[in-house]
Amino acid sequence: MKDVFLKTVTRLKTVSALKWIDAEDGQLDFFEGRPPVAFPCALIDVEYPNCEDESDTIQMVTARVTVRLAFEPVGQTNGAAPTLVQTKALSRYDTVNACYTALQGWGDGEVSGFSRKSQTTEKRDDNLKVIVQVWETSFEEDSLP
After folding, report:
1. Using one digit for the tens of pLDDT, what is the confidence trace for 86-116?
2. What is d(CA 74, CA 17) in angstroms, rounded to the nearest whole number?
3. Distance, CA of 85 to CA of 142 (rounded, Å)
4. Domains of the chain (ranges, CATH numbers)
């Protein structure tokens, strides 16, 4: 899990708009005052939903990487808002697309190319805008050193 996490961090570091990249530890859900991150941020969680034996010591692992992209509101997006205000407020989608561009199809010979499986927006009671991308990649894992 650690290797997939670190590879994801390395790729997301190429997205200059991101100010904070970290493991998902509930930073956006359990806080008082202000979340302990800089915005915009990417919070990463790695799971292995499918592991298939290829031999006694080797498995083909499907890794699911969830990236929560969080943004503070920076203006209005409604149709009556001035164009400059609306453009700035919608710039979060440029960051979301940059993350897509950084990860989609990327692989390094150890992991297969990342494939985006879904992208959703969280409905929240606070003012944060959170867009969740779910990715899959796969790799062989050997239990022998």
Report:
1. 878 888 999 999 999 999 999 999 999 999 9
2. 14
3. 52
4. 2-142 (3.30.2000.10)
